[in-house]
Fold:
Amino acid sequence: MPKLPGGPLATRPLHFFFIADCSSSMAGDKIQSLNQAIRESIPHMREVARGNPNAEVLVRSVAFANGAQWHHSQATSVEQFEWNDLSAGGMTSMGRALSLVADVLRTPPMPERALPPVLVLVTDGAPTDDFDSGLRTLMAEPWGKKAVRLAIAIGEDAQLDVLQKFIGHPELQPLQASNADQLVKYIRWASTAVLQAASAPASQTQASSQGVNVPLPPPPPATPGGAGDVW
Structure:
């Protein structure tokens, strides 16, 4: 068991959040691909969790369209977590989604000693509510600041400057998925490689060259899509 100031890392919770855009523009292939990508990532997340006894991986998800609501409201062990498919329709209340996450990152209910949360924001458009207010609410919480914040842009219409503000580190860029294959790769990377890095002891003891709490592995390279399947 690795020794750190203040005690060992055994069984510290790691809260993982999918923050998913369900607006009308996600209807059809995009929302189907997102559901498939997350569903396929769950077994791999379980493998990562089993390989690291330092972390108790707990998963939740937020869906945002006309407002935002918990899609999975309870922090559920990744071993028991099952993905329920999303449907699309409505606006893009991204700011409200960040405020919902901020509510559960307060201490309490968050413990003082935990591993950095991982927040994965996936969207194909621009917020239709007060995004800046939601981001300020999130960043006002210590665990919001400490979180590993990643963003995946679906298609060409996602507002990359907004996603960059969410990430908050110029060295980390939004990932741009132009087709279903790229989305699957990026979701899997965020939910496995990043999860593994965040659950490792290094996430508590080392500074990252990217300026975040967790030294992150490089994302998979983009691969071109075939004719007719580019978003």
